[in-house]
Design goal:
The protein is built from 9 helices and no strands. The protein has helices at residues 2-23, 27-47, 51-76, 80-85, 87-110, 127-135, 140-161, 173-178, 181-184.
């Protein structure tokens, strides 16, 4: 009973934070709500006894991808008004995709009521070991391709945020090494003042 209550609490937080991701006026707030959604989804994975997936969700998405998103959103200086102009134009497509997702979720949840039961797992079964065996044997190439795509995404994010600014100051080490003492320091001889 307690586990069911925790699940519904996490599910409610996940739905509210997911809704706030797309309705937040500030892009930084939207990213932070997405971080909350990922943490809550990791809690639901823990309730389903999928510890590895929960930890991977927190480490990979919250610890790496979302921090990258946050830096990109903060450094790009997004014009919020221009982003909102295309909201109504994209709404029909969003409704179609959302409807498909709702139908899929209803089909998955209704499957329980039509006699589908999960298979019993043997004692000492480790979902982490089973996932690792499948990931590094059957899906090894897909795993490596995903790693390369993430690397390309990181490089693209750095390239997007790197801008040439006119007021930026920089140092030229080669010209600093060539400088002579006479060019930088000027000795001035002054007469000493006598007290009256």
């Amino acid at each position: 009973m307690f586990e069911t209550g925790v699940f519904y609490a996490f599910a409610a937080i996940l739905l509210v934070s997911g809704l706030l991701v797309i309705t937040a006026r500030n892009p930084v707030h939207g990213v932070l709500f997405l971080v909350l959604a990922f943490f809550t989804a990791a809690g639901i994975w823990l309730l389903l006894r999928a510890e590895f997936l929960a930890i991977a969700l927190v480490v990979v998405y919250v610890g790496a991808v979302m921090v990258l998103f946050l830096f990109v959103v903060m450094m790009l200086d997004i014009n919020v008004e221009r982003v909102r102009e295309g909201f109504w134009r994209n709404l029909p497509l969003a409704l179609v995709v959302g409807g498909i997702l709702v139908i899929e979720m209803i089909a998955v949840l209704a499957n329980r009521y039509y006699g589908a039961v999960p298979r019993e797992l043997p004692a000492g079964y480790s979902n982490t070991k089973a996932l690792g065996r499948v990931l590094y044997t059957q899906y090894a190439y897909a795993f490596e391709i995903a790693a390369v795509l993430l690397l390309v995404a990181i490089i693209a994010a750095v390239a997007l945020t790197l801008r040439k600014r006119k007021d930026r100051r920089y140092q030229d080490p080669s010209s600093q090494v060539k400088v002579r003492r006479e060019d930088r320091v000027r000795l001035v001889s002054m007469k000493t003042e006598t007290e009256k």
